[in-house]
Amino acid sequence: MDDTIIYKTEEWLALKRHYDSTRDLNLRQLLAGDSGRNRVSDMYIEVGDLHFDYSRHLVTSETIDLLMALAERSGLHERVSAMFAGVHINTTEDRSVLHVALRMPATESLVVDGTDVVKQVHRVLDKMGKLSDDIRSGTWLGYTGKQIRNIINIGIGGSDLGPAMAYQALLDYADPALKVRFVSNIDPIALWQATHDLDPAETLFVICSKTFTTLETLTNARKAREWLLNGLGAPNEAVARHFIAVSTNEKEVERFGIDVSTMLEFWDWVGGRYSVDSAIGFSLMIAIGKEAFTDFLAGFRSIDEHFRTAPLSKNMPVIQGMLNVWYNNFHGAQTHAVLPYSERMARFPAYLQQLTMESNGKSVRLDGTSVGIQTGEIFWGEPGTNGQHAFYQLLHQGTKLIPADIILFSEPVRDIGDEHDALFANGLAQAAALSLGKNASEVAAEGVSKAIVPHKVMPGNRPVTVVVAKKLTPAVLGQLIAFYEHTVFVEGCIWGIDSFDQWGVELGKAMAARLTPLLAKDRVASQGRESEVDAATSRLIDLYRNQRGR
Ligand code: F6P
Predict the structure, then answer these.
(1) Nearest Cα residue to atom 5 of ligand 1
(2) CA distance linking residue 223 with residue 421, whole number of Å
(3) Among 79, 536, 111, which residue's Cα sits nearest to residue 308?
(4) Is the CB of 158 under 6 A from ligand 1?
(5) SS3 of 530, please?
(6) Pocket test for ligand 1, best of 159, 250, 270, 501 (most atoms within 8 A of CB)
(7) End-to-end CA distance of the chain, in Å?
(8) Can you tell me whether residue 322 is helix, strand or coil?
(9) pLDDT truncated to tens, each residue of the chain (550 aa)?
(10) Is 51 considered catalytic here?
(11) Class of residue 150 by CB neighbours under 10 A (exposed 0-12, middle 13-18, buried 19+)
């Protein structure tokens, strides 16, 4: 037996046997009586501000033991240590994976490839702090001497989703005198929407791009520069007062024409989807201030330390990651719902989609051979209670098994009424309804006619993780993000894949670059096209040109 392949190991086969013998586990029974009470206190971890309850999962303590044995077998311990030590675990790009260094305190040091990366991180954090203070206080003025009132973050993917999500989540901590907006799409309406009602003299663009070569971001940045200079009727020098670049690529920033003395740097060892806590979070820092941003980083850090040091069976991201493996690889689940009961967390599921799916949407192992088993789940979700009136029906009575994370906050972000009790109660109710359901006799006892009873039965047994924090704060948001980052890491380790590259997005980018000129006004229709595109694409190009009168 080739036991270097995870699904051929004794630990995997033991889990398979265990799955076969525990198919009829019933959450109602598991949660009932004294043993239910014991289960609830056993299957519970508290770290930092997060209370993590995994008692509503289709597992017994034996399942957890077997999952932990599989985690051990996969080399998780060694891989976690390797990440924290700066080993080049992103092998296809020959890079360290060091987002954890972004939140190490200045008192620490981590020398990687001959450089103390913690020093680098704090040098940039200090620069961000000074610049954001200057912008917030009005020390930094626009070209015509007006104070900056509008911040527009231009970036896409990891250079947008993190700061955009976090800004919305932390809106109650943001300076209300500042308008902060995010532009990502190459659809020209996005930039128009963000700028059309603003005064260029009061507007600062933060151009975020790790590579500084991304088509969408550079296109929008060029248009933004045009908007600024036309609006001000000013020469190119005005750009320096209205554009700040965040990137790893100083050469391209300079070529674009942004002052490199204000550039905020990060490094190739920060993956785009792991970058909200790097200089990519600069717009967020301007909004909430450097002190709150420091709290945000401290939140990440507390989960990092827990992940690095806690034993596997008491380790929150390890348990969650292994539960995900349990459903994905043994129960055949395809998707995973994330349901934050918080309007402010509306963009969190979208943020997690990039984090989880760009990381673990892979089908070859590190050695390039086929992975042979299911990998990354499809993450999706919406805030509660909105989702309850949309897709929860399928969660409750559909035919698919969809593990769900319900995220709850005990305190509202603003004291504006007692409705928060109802919000929290709805989250609790859904966790209970999903896991416990309602059986036929309970339905019948309500006087429901026999023919309708089956329609009202709720099978229950839907697995749910419940995470509770007292309040959505910068530190709590940092903890939640780090929790999911490390969960992704655990799953990637089991599958033996590179969770830190994203080659799959390249082909479409290259194709779009080839197709764009074929749509252009001045291109003669069909000219030499056969050799460039397939028949189906060619037909749609004709349709487009036709509809645009070209
Ligand atoms: O297209 C995918 C991607 O490379 C993401 O991984 C990244 O977050 C995004 O594009 C933006 O890249 P950049 O920050 O280099 O503009």
Answers:
(1) 157
(2) 46
(3) 79
(4) yes
(5) coil
(6) 159
(7) 62
(8) helix
(9) 466 799 999 999 999 999 999 999 999 999 999 999 999 999 999 999 999 999 999 999 999 999 999 999 999 999 999 999 999 999 999 999 999 999 999 999 999 999 999 999 999 999 999 999 999 999 999 999 999 999 999 999 999 999 999 999 999 999 999 999 999 999 999 999 999 999 999 999 999 999 999 999 999 999 999 999 999 999 999 999 999 999 999 999 999 999 999 999 999 999 999 999 999 999 999 999 999 999 999 999 999 999 999 999 999 999 999 999 999 999 999 999 999 999 999 999 999 999 999 999 999 999 999 999 999 999 999 999 999 999 999 999 999 999 999 999 999 999 998 999 999 999 999 999 999 999 999 999 999 999 999 999 999 999 999 999 999 999 999 999 999 999 999 999 999 999 999 999 989 988 998 999 999 988 776 766 777 899 999 999 999 999 999 9
(10) no
(11) buried
CA–CA gap between residue 167 and residue 182 (Å, rounded): 10
Ligand 1 centre distance from Cα of residue 156 (Å): 6
The encoded tokens of residue 124 equal 């940039």
